[in-house]
Specification:
single chain, ABC transporter involved in vitamin B12 uptake, BtuC, two-stranded antiparallel sheet, 2% strand
């Protein structure tokens, strides 16, 4: 027969007890339980819950955007003070506050007002607008076309704009010689914008025949680009010396044509483009997982792709018409931002735009001051910055790059 050993809170049963049958064995039971391993408390996850992780990540990304805004403001201050005419930071503040703050009563010298308001401030704002447009367009196109080497010029935009500008410069100087001096700049800008948009829509028309697949868009853009490049080469061949010089300078890209009128025209267009890119950011995030996944989540893939590319290309074409071809900003800025902020397009678009604006502003400041008073085309500076980055991207991530 078995026996039981009962304590205050437990009961132990053994088969036999030849020596202690019937005795109270509470102490023995407690010693037995003391030999059992105590449960190890489960450590709390230091990373916290999913909501806490998401909130922390979002806060860090927002903090990075604030840092980029501060960096852009600092670059703008340096650009406003640097140049052949020396203007102090205090004078810049008084001039800018006097122009944009009606209640401000400070005064600045006439030289500082002329240099800052008429020359440097429009150029700074044009550099910011152009950098935001090109970098935001580059990030958008890389996302919807699933290609990390895409930039805003991949759809033939730059070649089309170059052909339009060449047509205006070469033929306009011949057929409109009496009035070309007054209407020439407007003719070049208009032609560059129109032909840039025309090239973009030709690519879209070709892609619609094959369902707007990314490969069709890219290859169609390459084909249209070669077509317009042939036209530019032909116009170079038949142009006069002065027209050829003006065309070559335009093709190099620069911000020397910055005016308040250009800023007023471009600002609402680029702002509307950025709004469209941010509005469809969630859809592009879904598209990154694949067209089938995005379609199953209710995303109209074809519509989102065309709207995204259209908004990006429209803003890029408008800025290129005023500045010429400035390369690599739309390639470098998005990749740097991906390293800093990830692939979430709600943050990648503003991050790329701010960083692109800062990069172009710094490059333009260098172009103005390195060989002052001689000015280097800013497209040369951005190419010198972008080519090493592009090669590094090819070498380090070649296994991840697919066309």
């Amino acid at each position: 027969m078995g026996w039981s050993c009962k304590g205050p809170m437990f009961t132990l049963k053994h088969r036999t007890d030849p020596w202690n049958q019937g005795r109270d064995c509470t102490g023995r039971a407690r010693r037995f339980l003391a030999l059992r391993p105590s449960p190890v408390p489960r450590p709390r996850d230091r990373r916290g819950t999913v909501e806490e992780i998401y909130a922390s990540t979002t806060f860090r990304k927002a903090l990075l955007l604030v840092g980029l805004v501060i960096l852009l403001a600092a670059a703008g201050l340096v650009a406003a003070t640097a140049g052949a005419a020396q203007v102090g930071a205090g004078d810049v503040w008084r001039v800018v506050a006097g122009k944009f703050l009606p209640a401000y009563r400070g005064t600045a010298g006439e030289l500082a007002r002329t240099v800052v308001v008429d020359l440097r401030l429009p150029r700074i704002l044009l550099a910011v607008i152009t950098g935001m447009s090109l970098a935001g367009a580059g990030a958008a196109m890389q996302g919807v076309l699933h290609n990390p080497l895409v930039d805003p010029y991949i759809l033939g935009l730059s070649s089309g704009a170059a052909f339009g500008a060449a047509l205006a410069i070469v033929l306009g100087a011949g057929f409109l010689a009496p009035v070309y001096g007054s209407v020439g700049p407007y003719l070049v800008i208009t032609n560059a914008f129109v032909f840039g948009i025309l090239a973009m829509w030709l690519v879209y028309g070709i892609a619609r025949l094959r369902g707007t697949a990314p490969e069709t868009l890219i290859l169609g853009g390459v084909a249209i680009g070669y077509l317009f490049s042939a036209g530019v080469a032909l116009l170079k061949y038949v142009s006069e010396n002065e027209a050829l010089k003006e065309l070559v300078v335009w093709l190099m890209g620069g911000l020397w044509g910055a005016t308040w009128e250009a800023v007023r025209l471009l600002f609402p267009l680029v702002l509307a483009s950025q709004a469209v890119l941010l509005y469809y950011a969630w859809d592009v995030n879904a598209l990154l997982a694949g067209e089938e996944v995005a379609g199953s989540l209710g995303v109209n893939v074809r519509r989102v792709r065309l709207l995204y590319l259209g908004a990006a290309s429209m803003a890029a074409a408008a800025t290129v018409a005023f500045t010429g071809i400035i390369g690599f900003v739309g390639l470098v800025a998005p990749h740097i931002c991906r390293l800093l902020i990830g692939n979430d397009y709600r943050f990648l678009i503003p991050c790329s735009s701010l960083l692109g604006a800062a990069l172009l502003l710094v490059a333009d400041t260098g172009a103005r001051t390195i060989m002052a008073p001689t000015e280097i085309p800013v497209g040369v500076i951005t190419s010198l910055i972008g080519v090493p980055f592009f090669l590094g991207l090819l070498l380090k991530r070649r296994s991840q790059i697919s066309l």
